[in-house]
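Please check the following for our workbook:

***
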Amino acid sequence: MKLLRRLPLLFIAAGAALGAMNAATAAPTPGAPLRVMSFNVRYATAPDGENAWDKRRDFFFETIEQFQPDVIGFQEVLAVQYDAIAERLKGHAFSGVAREDGRRQGEFSSIGYRKDRFSVVAAGTFWLSEQPTVPGSKSWDAALTRICSWARLREAATGREFVYANTHFDHRGVVARREAARVLSEQIGPIAAGVPAILTGDFNINEDNPAYVALVQPTKPEWIRWIDSYRTLHPQRQPDEASFNGFKGTVKGSRIDFIFHTSHFKATAAAIDRSSRDGRFPSDHYPVTAVLVWE
């Protein structure tokens, strides 16, 4: 009798799992909204104790799978994490190189995209320095080498193309962050000329920073005017918008992780994913998400 009483619950659980699997693998609808996520993974070799990569890896992946992104930008990805992400997220293909040597040394700002929906037309990485084409280059007061990886993606069902760029600005250099916004604008402008574009990343700035202003209010006509998806849908700034949690569940503060887009898109949803489990978090940053529709 006990077994019989448990059967409905088992069927419910199995049905829920099957439904999630089917949703994750369902064929994309032409012109469907774009589900976008940006996620700083926290690099694998950090001395994080109970929050070390190996102890939170499953929760990290489950958080991504729960949102089911069409495209996702990662930051702080070491090679071991790049390989783990590619192995786990089999429905996605990945683009990007590591910042120190342009291959696998150092952190990636990698891009993932649903391979049943998109193909890569072109892709590349540039360095946020005075020598954007030189791997490992670092300038101004930057503490670390910083990059932006990008991919021009074509939607198989419609043939439409857009550029997706993903970056990580320096965490210390005041001048470096301002100059990074300039370099990014100079580099991405020609790459995304005439097509829609999305920009994600950990920018290590808030909305009062000159680098943020340079992105959303560019001073040159050839630079892209980026639209902040979250602020569009949440126009009133709040005191609990922190996207960095430090593994402490912090909510007070400002966003430093953003999903920007061009006017070719309209945001219908945008959120800071504060998923936690028994007081634990999948990373020291909350992932940020947006749903974009083609205008």
Observations:
- The chain has six helices and twelve strands.
- Helices lie at 2-25, 53-67, 79-88, 174-191, 210-216, 229-233.
- The CA atoms of residues 4 and 10 lie 10 Å apart.
- The longest strand covers residues 118-127.
